Every structure is written in C-alpha cells, then in structure tokens.
Amino acid sequence: MATFADPKLISEAGALMRPASVFRHFISRDPGSTFPPEAGRYHLYVSYACPWASRCLALLNIKGLRKAISVTVTKSVFERTKDTDEHMGWVFPSSSTEEDGAEPDTLNGAKTVRELYELASADYTGRFTVPVLWDKKLKTIVNNESSEIIRMFNSEFNEIADNPDLDLYPPQLRAQIDEINEWTYNDINNGVYKCGFAQKQGAYNEAVTNLFNALDKCEEILSKQRYLCGDTVTEADIRLFKTLIRFDAVYVVHFKCSKKAIREYPNLFNYTKDIYQIPGISSSVNMEHIRKHYFISHTHINPFAIVAASPNIDFSSPHDRDRFTK
Ligand SMILES: N[C@@H](CCC(=O)N[C@@H](CS)C(=O)NCC(=O)O)C(=O)O
C-alpha cells in the first residue's frame, strides 16, 4: 500500500523512485480484442488535481468523447480510505454538493479509489492512483497509466468521437513526440515531483537543475515555433501543459521549483495560455482542486497543510502565439 510518503519509494541518495503502473490492457479496434472501443462501455475515474489524470480528461474533451466515455471526479484532498489502517488516498464525496466538481461514484458505489483497485484485483499491492480507466462490462480496470490511456482516446474511438480527425500522435511526428516526451517526462512532468519529494540536498539539486535546463530548452524551442513539434499541437504539448498550468500556483512553492516562475518565461507563459484556450482544455483545469490537493494532502512535506496564496494569473487573457501561424 505504497504512497509517496512511503520510505520504500525513496532511494539511498534521497531521490524519488516512481513505481510503474500495473494495469496495462489496451482498448483496441483490432478484431478479437478483449477491450473493443464501444460507446458507453468505459468509465474514467480522475482527480482534477492530478496532472496525469487530467491529461486523460483533456484528451477526452478535445476528442469529443464525453458522450461515449463517462467520468467521475474524486474529492480534491486525500482522506483515510479504511478505518483499519492509516492509508490516505482519493475518496468520492457522498453527495454532489459536498465539494464543487467532485461526484459520488454512482457506477460502482465505491467510497474510495482504493475500493476500485480491490474490486479489480483482490491481491493488488500497488498504489491506488488516478487515472483509472474502468470497463463496465468486465467490471475491471483496463489501464491505470495515463500515457497509454491518452493514446487509446486519441486513436481507438474515432468511429464514435465527435472530433475524429484530430490526431495528436500522427505517424509522421511519432518519433519526434516520443523523443520530446522522454525528456519532458523525466525532467519536467516527473521532474517537479523529484524536486518536491527529494529527501537529500544532492537529489534535490540534481532534480532542480535538470528541471530548469529542460524548461530553458522548451523556452528556446517555443521562441521559434508555436508548439513543441512545429505548427501543429500534439500529445507532447498537452503533457507539458499539465505541468505548466500547476507550476506558478503550486510547484514553485510546494515543490521548491523556485528558480523561476513560468510567467517569467515569455514564450512558455504565452504557450500555456495558448493551450489553455484550445476548446475543451480549460474545463479539464480546476485550480481550486489543484491547490487544495497538493498543499493539504502532502502532509509529509507541508505538515500544517497551509494553502499558499496564489498568483493572480488569467490564462484566458490574450497571448502572442498566433504570430507563428499568421
Ligand atoms: N503513472 C501514473 C501516475 C499516476 C499518479 O501518480 N497519480 C497520483 C496523483 S497525481 C495518485 O493517484 N497518487 C495516489 C497515491 O500516491 O496514493 C500515470 O501517469 O497514470
């Protein structure tokens, strides 16, 4: 029953070691597939706070899959998941008025995300993470790895998606996207967590150096082109965006990513607004859930659970990114 407060996830050198996701089935259009893409069959459990889960929500929205795949959003702050042990994790509210944006689990009647994992596998010993992509027919978890869930949403549901022509992982850009994802994941998406959860100065120093080198590299790329792969938006942009949108309000303070804020990088800042303004993206962002979750749930790094004041940033204000595509 690991969480990030668990000493087993910290190396000798004091660095965070993120374990791999466990449920790795694929929804596929291939004949004979156990998990074929069917409207109404799958359900996505997310937290708005979680960058990995909310990238799935972003994909669901921009591909026009909200009618085909249902969604339940957890409460923003971790709570005890059982009376009989100390585990703290994602829970569902008992009514939809308990917290704005969060909903009870009317599909499985679960009180916690942990219960979903226990329904899917009696001997599961991993973390009880979101996202969870659930199969209503086989009553199990299809997949709990966001990087794979977004690929399925992008390509496997095109017969039922409202926006089937949008391809965020097009064949001609795949090698470039994979290469960018590799360093943006290690140094930025997961890099902020490596800064925040480091337990030795050396591990923090390494993570924070790699993080800001990678952000500088993005700034440089984005000073020459609108998106990471050129003039079309791709999966790599959605993945980067989910970290950038949390950066100034949370990561700068909570994870000590304090060398610079995103609003000090002219290209990255305008790019964040640009992605935010793509239809379907802003509704995958809930700043209240984001701020409350990090500052209140991570008691091992913020024991008094004080929610830090937020800078006042309007991501829907004008940006200058269309200068590249005029
Ligand atoms: N590899 C997973 C990571 C998901 C993940 O780490 N989610 C966090 C929230 S941001 C979580 O659910 N944590 C619960 C816990 O640690 O107990 C993915 O990308 O889907």
TrEMBL record:
Domain GST C-terminal: 170-294
InterPro entries xrefs: Glutathione-S-Trfase_C-like, Glutathione-S-Trfase_C_sf, Glutathione_S-Trfase, Glutathione_S-Trfase_N, GST_Omega-like_C, GST_Omega/GSH, Thioredoxin-like_sf
Coiled-coil residue spans: none
Chain residues that bind glutathione: 90, 127-130, 145-146
Active site: 50 (nucleophile), 193 (proton donor/acceptor)
Residues flagged as site, Lowers pKa of active site Cys: 251, 294
A GO molecular-function annotation: glutathione transferase activity
Gene Ontology CC terms, in alphabetical order: cytoplasm
Domain of life: Eukaryota
PANTHER family, alphabetized: GLUTATHIONE S-TRANSFERASE OMEGA-LIKE 1-RELATED (PTHR32419:SF6), GLUTATHIONYL-HYDROQUINONE REDUCTASE (PTHR32419)
UniProt name for this protein: Reductase
Organism: Lithospermum erythrorhizon (Purple gromwell)
